[in-house]
Design a protein that fits this description.
The structure is a homodimer of 383-residue chains. In chain A, 31% of the residues lie in helices and 23% in strands. Chain A is of the alpha+beta class. Chain A has two domains: 248 residues, L-amino peptidase D-ALA esterase/amidase; 116 residues, Ubiquitin-like (UB roll) (Roll), CATH 3.10.20.340. In chain A, strands 13-12-11-14-10-15 form a six-stranded mixed sheet. A five-stranded mixed sheet of chain A has the order 3-9-8-7-6, with helices on both faces. In chain A, strands 1-2-4-5 form a four-stranded mixed sheet. In chain A, helix 2 links the parallel strand 4 and strand 5. In chain A, helix 1 packs across helix 2 and helix 2 packs parallel to helix 3. Chains A and B meet through helix 8, helix 9, strand 13 and helix 10 of A and helix 8, helix 9, strand 13 and helix 10 of B. Chains A, B: Its EC number is 2.3.1.35, 2.3.1.1. Chains A, B: Catalyzes two activities which are involved in the cyclic version of arginine biosynthesis: the synthesis of N-acetylglutamate from glutamate and acetyl-CoA as the acetyl donor, and of ornithine by transacetylation between N(2)-acetylornithine and glutamate. Chains A, B: One of its GO terms (molecular function) is L-glutamate N-acetyltransferase activity.
Chain lengths: 383, 383
């Protein structure tokens, strides 16, 4: 149930001393082949961290032999020195593994605007390279945690091949400063092009549809690596389906562990005129602070849902909108529906359905409520 | 210092029993002329409340004799009955004043999705009509409060004429569910067209540039009325300048009293390539929950400012961005600048300057921090 579930991968997680807490903070996942296909999706934030710039370039050829990840520092907004540090990390990792630095992906997460303590980091990389095992996926998942309370791993097993993965953070592909980092591995025999297509399609409907607080990190990276070690050749469709299963599992875990959240909110927009319309509406609700506060207060405040929908350019008639919260249709035809006191918001999981009556598309986005604990965690994060 | 500062206006505020608190909840402002020019700017939310639909229509002819405002209920998402109730309120007000219902503007604020108690409301309108005075502006300002802690009034006095105003709520022309309602009066001799132009120009750089929590209400209304009672004819420019002064004063008061806020944050985007660029950047910072939590925690977290700027499509080079917080340039050329511990965030007012190095435009947007109290107020608002 991790990045080392598929054959051909070894991983490790060690404590390098980057985190004040003394918890593990350097992870390594190595692809022992025979294939070294790799693909990635990165943050769209124009202020991108040095490791994103490096990794984007290193993956142009569709190959990666390893990924080195550190928590305890994002290496973002660190200028030329920051990029040199990422480069040095890749070089050091490559040397320890006997591969080319250009085939080492680098991921970092933590505070922005501070240089990494390089001697600690390189010592950690050396230690990680020395402790790689085919059972190291769990240790790697633990070493990439920041504000996460639990490590997040997943796997999808098929006939003779599998997909594994790990994740940290909370948000969408553009999440909270608690950067989202994801590594997905597979031992399927595939091509770099199919791996890239599978990852993009899987990401589009999983990590792109979770939105904890609407904020976009400088470091988000979702990396996929294929070893071919199973000897089983799969179609693009089979691969996509399995990668999607792992990504969906990890995405749901991210929402379930979002900073300070008390509720996980599934927003389902029904009968949208297009997928784009449905997504715009779902996101507008997911990013509405007033609605998110109401759910924290166990208040089925459908007026705030309608007010959010009204800010979009989606096709809908205000007088036809229906809203159900946990199965109770509190808003019918744009007005008062069933008795709102019937809505039970005690459970962590909340389902909000908005029927636009405008077409056939349905889109689901997951978010969290806005709580005292969210404010506390994010006002105290760096101080 | 209120809507009755200019000559030609009477106002009143009474308790009709719409609010559980027993505080004043119905306000009336009447223009006794000789002119009855009026103009308004409304929410752009497509889910608009019945009073907005009514008032938009009633102002097509550029004339209003009176505005009746109630707190204690927004009359939004209330269907055909809600619109009939707004119509009945206008009719009742018109009868009490001896004017045409089509010249009565209606504003409502409070919870969405509940019908107004019409017998209480009409009794309140009768009482308000009977207690109109030329000194009633303060009472009217008190009667439109919802989560406001203080009434908000302002005036700008010129040679022989003046502009007055009142406001409630917190946000921008698209604010929190705590709808923004504003009434601006003047005794200048002007035209309906000049009044409309002055209001739009003043609003664009005042109410449109405050953004407490990025949420857009269904009821926001900014109404201007001109009586001509001063006998002083003014140019469009003179009028715009004075209306802008009153709107800026009221806007600053709204931010200063935003729900649960501990800091008022002035975001100044400098050297933008265009006004639109500057506005997009300023808004992206104003709506970034992580940044707003950091300010609450007195943490000069400039990384979150850069992460917000990076989500925009404005013209800038990441490596040229400068950020100053309360005069300390904590980020220089996209990287670490002066020592962040030099930043003092004890005072309520915070100034964040972002230099894009991309042009000559400067845009200022005001927002608030995101606090425990914001979450508390907005999770407990309806329960």
């Amino acid at each position: 149930m991790s990045t080392t579930t598929p054959a051909g991968f070894r991983a490790a997680g060690v404590t390098a001393g980057l985190k004040a807490s003394g918890r593990p903070d350097v992870a390594l996942v190595v692809n022992d082949g025979p294939d070294r296909h790799a693909a990635a999706v990165f943050t769209t934030n124009r202020v991108e961290a040095a490791p994103v710039t490096w990794s984007r370039q290193s993956l142009v050829d569709g190959r990666a032999d390893a990924v080195v990840l550190n928590s305890g520092g994002a290496n973002a907004c660190t200028g030329a020195q920051g990029f040199q540090d990422t480069h040095a990390t890749a070089e050091h990792t490559a040397e320890a593994l006997g591969v080319s630095a250009g085939d080492v992906v680098v991921c970092s997460t933590g505070l922005i605007g501070e240089l990494l303590p390089m001697s600690k980091l390189t010592a950690g990389v050396t230690a990680a390279a020395g402790s790689l095992t085919a059972e190291g996926g769990a240790a790697a998942a633990e070493a990439i945690m920041t504000t996460d309370t639990v490590p997040k791993t997943a796997a999808a097993t098929r006939d003779g091949w599998s997909v594994g993965g790990m994740a940290k953070g909370a948000g969408m592909l553009a999440p909270a400063l608690a950067t989202m980092l994801v590594v997905v591995t597979t031992d399927a025999v595939t091509s770099a092009a199919d791996l890239d297509a599978a990852l993009r399609e899987a990401t589009r409907t999983t990590f792109d549809r979770i939105d904890s607080d609407g904020c976009m990190s400088t470091n988000d990276t979702v990396l996929a690596m294929a070893s071919g070690a199973s000897g089983t050749t799969v179609s693009r469709e089979e691969l996509t389906e399995a990668v999607r299963e792992v990504c969906a599992d990890l995405a749901r875990q991210l929402i379930g562990d979002a900073e300070g959240a008390h509720h996980d909110i599934e927003i389902v927009v029904q009968r949208a005129a297009s997928e784009a319309d449905g997504l715009e509406v779902a996101r507008s609700i997911a990013r509405n602070n007033l609605f998110k506060c109401a759910i924290f207060g166990k208040d089925p405040n459908w007026g705030r849902v309608l007010a959010a929908v009204g800010t979009t350019s989606a096709v809908f008639e205000p007088a036809r909108l229906d809203v159900s919260i946990n199965g109770v249709q509190v808003c019918r035809a744009g007005g008062v529906g069933e008795d709102r006191t019937l809505v039970d918001l005690e459970a962590r999981e909340v389902r909000v359905e908005v029927d636009l009556h405008a077409g056939d598309d349905e889109v689901t986005v997951w978010t969290n409520d806005l709580t005292h604990d969210y404010v506390h965690e994010n006002s105290a994060y760096s101080t």
